[in-house]
Amino acid sequence: MLTQEEDVDANALHRRGWTISAIARHLHKDRKTIRAYVTGQRSAGVRVKSPDQIDAFDPFAQYVAARLVEDPHLWARTLFDEVAGLGYDQAYQTFTRKLRERGLRPHCEPCSGAKGRPAAVIEHPAGEETQWDWLELPDPPVGWDYPSGRAFLLVGALAHSGKWRGVLCESMDQAHLVDALAQVTRALGGLTKVWRFDRMATVCHPDSGRVTASFAAVAKHYGVQVAICPPRRGNRKGVVEKANHTAAQRWWRNLPDEIGAAEAQARLDTFCARIADARVRTIGEIRAAVSEHAERERLAPVPATAFPLTMSVTRRVDAQCLVAFRGNRYSVPPELARAQVTVAWRLGAATIDIVTAAGAVLARHRLAPDGAGVLVRDHHHVTALEQHVLGVFDAGRPHRRKERIPPGPRCPGGRRGPA
After folding, report:
1. Prediction pTM value
2. What are the distances in angstroms from CA 275 to CA 164, 183, 214, 256?
3. What would the pLDDT profile of 179-222 be if each residue is shown by its tens digit?
4. How far apart are alpha carbons 214 and 177 in whole angstroms?
5. 4-48 fold
6. Which CATH fold would you assign to the domain 129-295?
């Protein structure tokens, strides 16, 4: 094999009229080697493989390429098992190296992220669309006592101005969704013509994207159209996606452990009003703050009455016979201490019911403002709890572990102990 320098010298000398033999003697190489390089049969730096050096992967390359076109995510180990069954006798490490060197695994566009793809700017007329999305918040403070161990933030963003608001929830079920929709809509200032969602199961059938009958009634109540994003197209609702990112990194990430859910919600509202709404954006030829752009949105008023839907959450009664709900605590009869009950609230109603699994109403209380920290107790429950505590109270001295207590008169045989 000739180096690049030797190849250059051989070609230069050949052009000057040197014979193959003279060039071979000058470079101390074989004449057949010099002739192969001068005539272009071989290239510098490339060693000719002998018959026993033929790549064992070559007979299987076409099969491997075809299998990876069919399934771009097929494990290399699984594919290796297939070709080994067809007669491939090299090691697994050699097989994977050949996959990398030849670039046989194709790029899977549907599974790749949106980053790096071309993106078009979508025009959003004022008052046309509100984008909605859930943001899952891991590791909420222990004091919140959310059953799932996670908190959820429903974020709504006006697509034209970029104004957004969010509401904390303990669940993503439809009742919490509808309640949060109403709260966020009021915080945004009104209703747009269209509500855009991704394929969340509480709004549509995820496979087909068709709106469910239960949510269709919600949309009719608020007088809005429902638009469902195509599958795996997060950029289609990029306004709310960016709001999610901002909420997660600038509000949730440094939220202290000692604050409650109501205070966390108040901090989010303050952040949105003071910081998020102060962002400067250029829309058309107008450069102004988000709050000023939002004032030009043509929003419809929100219905005065809430959509008639019942929210049900499971709670465990504490030792004081109290049940926590939306930042307040409500009393139940004393015999339910440490039992599991259900709190039912009709959206927009002024009262809540505490019921059993069978649906029997145990207590009914007037609903206190969210996060007020109010203790709501029925005087009958207070009286019953006091009587129960006093009834089981015993002023006797506790028994010591090594105390001697012989058999008394009530025992058969009198005071005689064991023989």
Report:
1. 0.69
2. 11, 20, 36, 19
3. 999 999 999 999 999 999 999 999 999 999 999 999 999 999 99
4. 12
5. Arc Repressor Mutant, subunit A (1.10.10)
6. Nucleotidyltransferase; domain 5 (3.30.420)
